[in-house]
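Run log, item B.
One chain of 473 residues. Sequence copied directly from the ordering sheet:
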Amino acid sequence: MRRNRKAKIIATLGPASSDYKTIKKLFISGADIFRLNFSHDVAETHIKRFKEIRLLEKKVKRPIGILMDLQGPKLRVGKFDDGPIFLKSGRKFTFDLNPMAGNKRRCFLPHKDIFRKIKKGNKILVDDGKLTLIVTRKNSNYIETKVKFSGFISSNKGFNIPNVKSANGKLTKKDEEDLRLALKLGVDWIALSFVETEKDVLNFKKIIKNKASVLTKLEKPIALKNLNKIIKVSDAIMIARGDLGIESPLESLPSQQKRIINACRQEGKPVVVATQMLDSMVNYPTPTRAEASDVATAIYDGTDAVMLSAETAIGAYPNESIKMMNKIIEKVESDPLYLNINEASHVKARATAEDAITESAKYVARIMSAKAVVTYTTSGSTALRAARERPDVPIMGISPNLNTARRLALAWGVHCIHTKDARSFKDMVIKSGKLAKKEKFAKKGDRVVITAGVPFGQSGATNVLRIASVDRY
C-alpha cells in the first residue's frame, strides 16, 4: 500500500484505538507509525497493542514503525486534604519540603533539587499554566511566591518552571522499567522526554546500545539554546509543543517551530510536529479552521511527520482524525506554492561523494521524468540522505534489514520495503524495476533512478547512481 503524500502521520494508541480492527483502520486511513505513550496505561496494555501492530504488519506485508514515548521526570506538587484550592491573584503561597498535606497557604514540593536551582523572579506554572506564581523569596527549605494569575491548585498537579534546568539526565525508576519492556519487545523508536543538553541524549544512547533509534523531544526552552548540538546526536527530533508552549511565550512557538524544522533539515534528521494538531476532533468529527491551518503550516514548513495524540488515543473520532490529517497533507503537497517553498529551502549538499550522488539523483529524476528514486540501504543512511534532498518523486527505501525499514517509516517521502539485498549490480536493477511495478510507482515504459552503496550488504557510502527502465520487468 502506497501513500499519495510524502509527510508521515504518527497515531497515538489508547482506549479509543486499542483493538486490532481499529488499529488496522487507522493504518489504512494513513497512519505510518504508532505511538505507545507510557505516561498512561499499564505494561500489559502496551504489550497487547504492540502485538496487534506486529500482527497487522504481517497481514498487510508493510513495515510499520512503533514509537515508545517515555514519561520522563514529571514535576508535581504534593497532596491536599481538601479538594482544589483557589488561589486569588496577589495572594502569597509557599512551597516547602514538609510532606504534610497542603492547604490554602502552603503545600509540599517533593523535588529537593528545585529549591537549590530556583531563583527570585522565576515563574511557577501549575496545571499547564492555569495558575501562575512568581517567586519572591527562597532558601533551601521553602519557596515563597505571589500569585500572578488566579487559578486552582490540587493534589499531584504538574508544574513547570521556565528557564530552570531541573533534570539531572537520569532516568526515573518508572522510565527504567518501561525502557526494559520496550527494548525487550523491540520497538523501533524511543522518545526521550525533557531533554536539556546533548549529554542527555548521548547518555541515553549508551543505555539502549543501538537497540532502537532515539527521538528527542524538545519541551524546554533550555534545550533550544543547545539546539544544534542536540540535533547532531539525535536520530530524530519532536517539537513537543505542549510543554514547550507552557514554558515559552506562546507567540514565539511558530517561529521556534520553523527554526527547529530548518535546523533538522540542514542536518538531515527527521522532525515531528506534535500536540493539539486536530484537538477539536477529540469531541467533534471535524477540526476548526485554525487547526486545519496548523497542520498545513507544519507541512509547508517542511516537517517530516505530524502527530496525533488525544485525537486517536481517547477521542471519539480516531479514524476520522487520521483521514482528515491525510487529506490536509495531500492537499498541501499538491499546491504549487508548496513545491516552490520546498525547492527554495533546498539544503546545500555537503562536499562528500555520498551527498553529491544523492543530490544528483533528485535532478536526474526530474530531467528524466523518473517515477521514483530508489535507495538501497542497510543502515538507513542512504534513504535519509535522499529524504533530505526532498525530491519531486517518492523515495523507495529498500532494505534487507527489517528494523531499518520500520524506522524509515518516519522519514519524509520514504516508502519502506523490506526484501533480500541485491546480490549483484544486475540484480539491483532488476529488483528496482520489479518492486517499482509491484508497489505501483511505475509501469511499463517508465524509469527510476537508483542510488546504492557497493559492495552490497554492507553499511557504508552511497557510491552508485543508475537510471533504469522498468520495461522488461
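Observations after the first pass:
- The two ends are 20 Å apart (CA to CA).
- Residues 359 and 389 are 6 Å apart (CA to CA).
Flagged for discussion on Thursday.
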